Amino acid sequence: MTEIAQEELEGSNARPVPPEGEDEPADREREAEEEPFDEDAETRAPGQARKLSERGAAFIARFEGCRLQLYNDPAGHCTIGIGHLVHHGPCNGSEPAEFKRGITLERAFELLEEDAAGVVAAMRRRVKVALTQHRFDALCSWGFNCGPGVFATSTLVRKLNAGDYASVRSELARWDKAGSPPRPLPGLTRRRRAEGRLFSEGKYQ
């Protein structure tokens, strides 16, 4: 993987606005702080995948983009790697030396794995049915983009937990709008279609 310019993403890394009838998902920080992972409460469905795979991480990186030097994301926050937030507000020289020097692609994926930990924990806690690896990876991409709170509040997870795997693809497609007023973004639409294809057909490309 090479670096991907933000304009090439066409909004695929933008935080979606919840569809009509859905609650605003909790953000990553609040979800991780207020709802710590409880191993005893983990769903233990037979055949359940347990973590994001390498192919799943590469899938997320396609839509989040990858830059090995510090940059300001579209919201104006200092960022590096695969959407890793360094701090709120623009880069100002106060960043850790590691980031000011630039990072390797390997380090970018390490940061992605750390950033996805809250999403993985929320999935393992909230999803009550078995997920094969490709389905787990698809939902992890969706949760990484929307925030782990989607696993507590969304219609998608409610239907999935009722055994309605077939509805996941169409439910994913609803989360493709951003901005005010909300409008579909080409990158988000493309990401949701790819996640639906990955969930339903196991196709990572």
Content of β-strand: 5-15%
Per the principal axes of the C-alpha atoms, what is the gross shape?
globular
Q: Identify the CATH class.
A: Mainly Alpha
**What is the architecture at the second tier of CATH?**
Orthogonal Bundle
Within the largest sheet, what's the order of strands?
1-2-3
Secondary structural class? mainly alpha
Mean pLDDT score, rounded?
A: 88
What count of domains describes the coordinates?
A: 1
- Termini distance? 14 Å
Q: Tally of extended strands?
A: 5
The radius of gyration is 16 Å
Tell me what the structure shows.
The protein is mostly helical and 205 residues long. It contains 10 helices and 5 strands. Strands 1-2-3 form a 3-stranded antiparallel beta sheet. The longest helix is centred in the middle third of the chain and has 22 residues. The radius of gyration is 16 Å and the shape is globular. The two termini are 14 Å apart. About 7% of the residues have low confidence.
Gist of the model:
With 205 residues, this protein is mainly alpha-helical. It is built from ten helices and five strands; from the N terminus they run αααβββααααααββα.
Layout: helices, strands, pairs:
Blueprint lengths: L5 H4 L18 H7 L19 H11 L2 E6 L5 E4 L2 E4 L9 H5 L3 H22 L6 H14 L3 H4 L1 H7 L6 H6 L3 E2 L4 E2 L1 H16 L4
Helix pairs in contact: 2-5, 3-6, 5-6, 6-10
Name a few traits of the molecule.
205 residues; Lysozyme; two-stranded antiparallel ribbon; 5 strands; mainly alpha; 10 helices
